[in-house]
Amino acid sequence: MAVFEYVASTKRQEETVESGTVIARDAKEAVAKLKVYRLQDVRLRRVGGLSGFYRSFIADIK
After folding, report:
1. 5, 6, 8, 57: least CB-packed within 10 angstroms?
2. Mean pLDDT, 10 residues at a time, over the chain (62 residues)?
3. Nearest one of 41, 40, 39, 46 to 21, comparing CA atoms
4. What is the pTM of this model?
5. Would you list the DSSP string of the chain?
6. How big is the CA angle at 11 (ends 20 and 38), to the nearest 5 degrees?
7. Which pLDDT belongs to residue 48?
8. DSSP per position, 16-30
9. Which of 30, 41, 37 is closest to 3 using CA atoms?
10. Partners of 51 in beta bridges
């Protein structure tokens, strides 16, 4: 499983920007997991190496 860092916007009350980490097999699965939380305009960046290993334990969305 890969670790992705995301930045997305929401339109709940005001237009806000949320960011965090998500664990998924690929970018398409990561976007699908984020759509459940009504996040739009998702930008993903794959995190690798030791940083990715560490973030896999503390990911916001698994």
Report:
1. 57
2. 92 81 95 89 93 91 88
3. 46
4. 0.85
5. -EEEEEEEEEESSSEEEEEEEEEESSHHHHHHHHHTTT-EEEEEEEE-HHHHHHHHHS-SB-
6. 55
7. 92
8. EEEEEEEEESSHHHH
9. 30
10. none
Phi, psi values for residue 4, rounded to 5°: -120, 140
Q: What is the pLDDT of residue 30?
A: 94
The pLDDT score that the predictor gives to residue 4 is: 96
Long-range contacts of residues 12-20, Cβ cutoff 8 Å, at least 24 apart: 12/38, 20/59, 20/60, 20/61
pLDDT at 53: 92
